[in-house]
Amino acid sequence: METRLYFVAGDIVNNAAVGALVGLLLSLLVGPGWPMIVAMIIGMVLGMIIALPFAFGLSALFGAMETMLPVMTTGMVAGMAVTMSASMNETSIAGGAEMGAISGLGVFAATYIFNAFVKPRAAKWTK
């Protein structure tokens, strides 16, 4: 992952924005009458479909691998989290967007932490 400020700030904004968009759209779709497992699966698939065009578009500005992995994972995680929550109780549009943005920031943090853990080990594996 990139450590320069432009790319890190871009990743933060990208993940939060895509997560908020996925959360907003899926909170409109899923309601309390949905079975949780069905809502989760549909949320995961639709979240990744919604995130895909943004991942492609943003990869030109912020790098393909640095953008595709976290943004697509954000779409999946935000989709699952928002739809599971919406299937249990009524979720507002703003609440869905907020949950999606928080999911995006969580995925961003997890991706960077995992990369910091794996990168030093990969150097000795590939020599």
Describe the overall structure:
- There is one protein chain.
- This protein has 127 residues and is an all-alpha fold.
- It has one domain (5-117).
- 87% of the residues lie in helices and 0% in strands.
- The chain has four helices and no strands.
Q: What number of domains?
A: 1
Mean pLDDT, to the nearest integer, reads 91
Helix run count: 4
**Order of SSEs:** HHHH
Q: How do the strands and helices of this protein lay out in sequence?
A:
Layout: H1 5-29, H2 36-62, H3 64-88, H4 93-125
In a few lines, what is going on in this structure?
The protein has 127 residues and is mostly helical.
Write out key terms for the chains shown.
single chain, 127 residues, mainly alpha, 4 helices, 87% helix, elongated
